[in-house]
UniProtKB/TrEMBL annotation:
Highest classification ranks of the organism: Bacteria, Thermotogati, Deinococcota, Deinococci, Deinococcales
Superkingdom, taxonomy of origin: Bacteria
Protein name: Integrase
CDD domains: DNA_BRE_C
Organism field: Deinococcus arenae
SUPFAM superfamilies found in the cross-reference section: DNA breaking-rejoining enzymes
Entry keyword set: DNA integration, DNA recombination, DNA-binding
Domain Tyr recombinase per the UniProt entry, residue ranges: 152-315
GO-annotated molecular function: DNA binding
Single GO biological process annotation from the record: DNA recombination
Keyword set includes Cytoplasm: no
InterPro entries linked: DNA_brk_join_enz, Integrase-like_cat_sf, Integrase_catalytic, Integrase_recombinase_N, Integrase_SAM-like_N, Tyrosine_recombinase_XerCD
Length: 316
């Protein structure tokens, strides 16, 4: 039987069960990294819980993890279809001791990065089981220790930096920053905003997993958005890709004298969560504003003031 190799994950998913199994076995037996990336993506978009709603960011992160794990497995004598029961733990240990190669970073990979790589490797084995290639689960007992440092400490919210940086942004970049820092949008949500999503002081946000929420817009955000003419026939206000807007925002932070403070757009989203919590003292309301399904997630977006309960305990 001759299989036609396809670069399309959907075409791969449309193979018969026998053809898919053969393709997956062939890829795993020969350590064909790119073919295994395709198998993983085919599973994620057609066989996983989220299916076609799996975000592009998740697919990219898992693909990166597969591209890391497969060469490691080949170098370290791991048979992908018949891994040893300790091989998952070996990979985790190697990740934990691997030097960080990030810009300006020292030490070993962060716990979050280790967890992301392991999640991608686990997804690969779910994909191989989905394809009928193996029943192996080498990461079933592999423990990934959590990071003892809270995310809000490692990546705190921007505070005064927002107002310092805005004068160094053009109108469109300033509106994007305000959408993240004042309206609490994820940067991917902000980049997809259309003029028709704005209804007075409310914004319809199309979020992760196809969820839709209504977000109130403050005066500064409304003013910034009303200054922007649509850029596309369907009314989109931004045409940037993520890497493009990240580069532009980094330059704006540098111009404002905050080059060392740039920590990505998530710190801007935490800015909105922190300010709203300080105004409301209500994690539930903040979580609804940010589009979180769990208040536990919201807690990671709020920087609490030191001695926040000093007045309450004064007369204990």
């Amino acid at each position: 039987m001759t299989l036609v190799r396809s670069n399309g994950t959907l075409a791969l998913a449309n193979l018969t069960d026998q053809a898919l199994r053969i393709r997956a076995i062939e890829a795993a037996s020969t350590y064909d990294t790119e073919a295994l990336v395709q198998v993983t993506q085919a599973y994620m978009t057609t066989g996983s819980r989220k299916g076609a709603r799996t975000s592009a960011k998740t697919l990219s992160a898992y693909s990166l993890a597969v591209r890391d794990f497969v060469p490691w497995a080949q170098t370290n004598g791991v048979q992908l279809l018949r891994p040893g029961r300790r091989d998952g733990g070996r990979y985790v240990a190697q990740l934990q001791s691997r030097p960080s190669q990030g810009r300006g970073k020292t030490g070993t990979l962060s716990a979050a990065t280790v967890a992301q790589y392991v999640a991608g490797a686990r997804a690969l084995y779910r994909a191989l089981r989905w394809a009928g290639a193996t029943e192996a689960q080498p990461f079933e007992d592999a423990h990934v220790p959590p990071d003892p440092t809270p995310g809000i400490v490692k990546n705190p919210p921007y505070m005064r930096e927002v107002d310092d940086v805005l004068p160094h942004c053009d109108a469109r970049l300033a509106a994007l920053l305000l959408l993240c820092a004042h309206a609490g949008l994820r940067v991917t949500e902000a980049l997809n905003v259309k003029g028709s999503d704005i209804q007075g002081a409310q914004l319809t946000v199309h979020g992760k997993g196809g969820k839709v929420r209504r977000v109130p817009l403050g005066r500064r955000v409304r003013t910034a958005l009303h200054r922007l003419p649509p850029l596309t026939p369907d009314g989109r206000l931004f045409e940037w890709q993520y890497h493009q807007v990240q580069y532009r925002m980094r330059l704006a932070f540098q111009a404002a004298g905050h080059s060392l403070a740039w920590r990505g757009f998530h710190a801007a989203r935490k800015h909105s969560g922190t300010r709203l919590y300080r105004a409301t003292k209500d994690f539930t309301r903040v979580g609804l504003f940010l589009g979180h399904s769990s208040v536990d997630t919201t807690r990671r977006y709020v920087a609490l003031e030191e001695n926040d309960v000093q007045n309450e305990v004064e007369d204990f």
